[in-house]
From TrEMBL:
<dbReference type="InterPro" id="IPR017144">
    <property type="entry name" value="Xaa-Arg_dipeptidase"/>
</dbReference>
<dbReference type="InterPro" id="IPR052030">
    <property type="entry name" value="Peptidase_M20/M20A_hydrolases"/>
</dbReference>
<comment type="similarity">
    <text>Belongs to the peptidase M20A family.</text>
</comment>
<protein>
    <recommendedName>
        <fullName>Peptidase M20 domain-containing protein 2</fullName>
    </recommendedName>
</protein>
<dbReference type="InterPro" id="IPR011650">
    <property type="entry name" value="Peptidase_M20_dimer"/>
</dbReference>
<feature type="domain" description="Peptidase M20 dimerisation">
    <location>
        <begin position="194"/>
        <end position="279"/>
    </location>
</feature>
<dbReference type="Pfam" id="PF01546">
    <property type="entry name" value="Peptidase_M20"/>
</dbReference>
<dbReference type="InterPro" id="IPR036264">
    <property type="entry name" value="Bact_exopeptidase_dim_dom"/>
</dbReference>
<dbReference type="Pfam" id="PF07687">
    <property type="entry name" value="M20_dimer"/>
</dbReference>
<dbReference type="InterPro" id="IPR002933">
    <property type="entry name" value="Peptidase_M20"/>
</dbReference>
<dbReference type="InterPro" id="IPR017439">
    <property type="entry name" value="Amidohydrolase"/>
</dbReference>
Length: 404
């Protein structure tokens, strides 16, 4: 990944957002109306057929077929990830990337609303394609799998699929309309302790209890939480702890996830947690292996001009989008936002008070309210991109982005 661009490069206080061009607004709205049944059908199909991270073959295929139907072409060089893709429409020098997420959570389906994310991004691409020629833009659609785990967007960054991108955008399902917020930097480790088995009654002294190491480590992590940087979170689950109660466990495994407001403070947490894990190994005599899982996600930075333009566009659809700088969860869109000016608003619909990552949240993903959010979000993103493309100063800023 390229070196992070400082936030002042992107997060500039914008001048007054120009009035929406009535002609462009009308053509985007008309395109969305024309593709409405396809876009909502896509949302419902992905929701009904959830696939976990890295296994989103049918979702990627559904998105690809709709894009081909709309006249998008697929790049000669495709991403290495088998459930990703790169497609485009138009030939303008200003390249707008729409990031399409579609992975689900094991056992509880689209409990983070990624069917809404996918459909709104695809809808935005279809709306923006209708005005690509007059705005001088290329609409680039990237299938970005495994957001819930390893971070497919980071793989696409590393493979160069954002190298020609001037701005990037997507919307994320939520309970209210919010833009401007950041996210928590995050990393995850797989932790393995290995000891020596023995009969738990006949010769326990001959064993080295790997589960003891994990208990000590988990206790140390719990005690360390008080001294962590503000806003930080450490989560730990035991994934293996022995196979028989009468055998001293020779192996114990855990998954540890660390989150913090910035990569700098995340580094502090990593050092503290590592010492806690080492304490378990030292106390028990077990060996310790720590393996990073996937890519670290950096904190999200949303571009102010795009955020303000999105707010103004959503007002046309009768939505009052709240501007907030509060961090919300974690996303690999953060890595994208350090590379190019980006937007990642929360797209609100009625979820009955449910929170993300629950089956109840998933149950609201194909409601009338969710469908409206898909179409409204698609319009808001397309018009935010249009506003930036049509504004000479913003266009110059976006084209001069130094990330390449």
């Amino acid at each position: 990944m390229s070196a992070p661009v400082q936030p002042t490069d992107f997060l500039q206080a914008p001048e007054a957002i120009p009035a929406l061009d009535a002609g462009i607004e009308g053509r985007v709205a008309a395109a969305l109306e024309r593709w409405q049944s396809d876009v909502l059908g896509l949302s419902h199909a992905i929701h009904a057929d959830p696939e976990p991270s890295g296994e989103e073959f049918r979702a990627a295929d559904r998105v690809s077929k709709l894009l081909k139907k709309a006249g998008f072409t697929f790049d000669a060089v495709q991403p290495e990830l088998s459930t990703s893709f790169s497609a485009r429409f138009g030939s303008g020098e200003l390249v707008v990337a729409l990031c399409v997420e579609y992975d689900a959570l094991p056992f509880i389906g689209h409990a983070c609303g990624h069917n809404v994310n996918a459909a709104s991004a695809v809808g935005s691409a279809l709306g923006l394609a209708a005005v690509a020629g007059e705005l001088g833009v290329t609409v680039k659609v990237l299938g970005t799998p495994a957001e819930e785990t390893t971070g497919g967007k980071v793989d696409l960054i590393n493979e160069g699929f954002f190298a020609d991108v001037s701005m990037a955008m997507m919307a994320h399902a939520g309970s209210e309309d919010v833009v401007g917020g950041t996210s928590l930097a995050v990393c995850m480790w797989d932790v393995l302790y290995e000891g020596r088995p023995a009969h738990a009654a006949a010769a326990p002294e001959e064993g080295i209890n790997a589960l003891d190491a994990l208990v000590v480590a988990q206790t140390a992590v719990a005690l360390a939480r008080q001294q962590l940087p503000p806003g930080s979170v450490v989560s730990l689950i035991v994934t293996e702890g022995g196979n028989a109660v009468n055998v001293i466990p020779e192996r114990a495994r855990a998954s540890v996830e660390m989150r913090s407001p910035s990569m700098a403070s995340l580094g502090i947490i990593e050092g503290r947690v590592r010492r806690c894990l080492e304490a378990g190994a030292h106390a028990s005599g077990s060996s310790l292996t720590i393996t990073p899982t996937g890519h670290p996600f950096v904190e999200l930075r949303q571009d102010l001009f795009l955020s303000e333009a999105y707010c103004k566009s959503m007002a046309v659809r009768g939505r009052d989008v709240r501007f907030s700088t509060e961090p919300v969860a974690s996303t690999d869109m953060g890595n994208v936002s350090h590379l190019v000016p980006s937007i990642h608003p929360l797209l609100g619909y009625d979820v009955g008070g449910a929170v993300h990552h629950t089956a109840e949240f998933a149950s609201h993903g194909v409601s009338v309210s969710a469908d409206r959010a898909v179409l409204d979000g698609a319009f808001g993103l397309a018009m935010a991109a249009s506003a930036a493309a049509a504004d000479p100063r913003q266009r110059e800023r976006l084209l001069s982005n130094p990330h390449g």
